[in-house]
Amino acid sequence: MYWTMGIILMVLWVMGLITGSTEGQWVHLLLVFSIIAFVLAVASLGRRRGLA
């Protein structure tokens, strides 16, 4: 679930950069949220495998 959310947020971030309508750089919050989603995905993967 976190992987999918991270990918969607990353795509939205890239689309925001391409369109150029960043409106005060708020679009970069999508990048931060996608990185957090990827970190959560890696953490949950480690928990399921017993690594963490």
UniProtKB/TrEMBL annotation:
One Pfam family per UniProt: DUF5670
Keywords: Membrane, Transmembrane, Transmembrane helix
Transmembrane segments: 26-46
Name of the molecule in the record: Lmo0937 family membrane protein
Originating organism: Corallococcus praedator
Keyword Transmembrane helix: yes
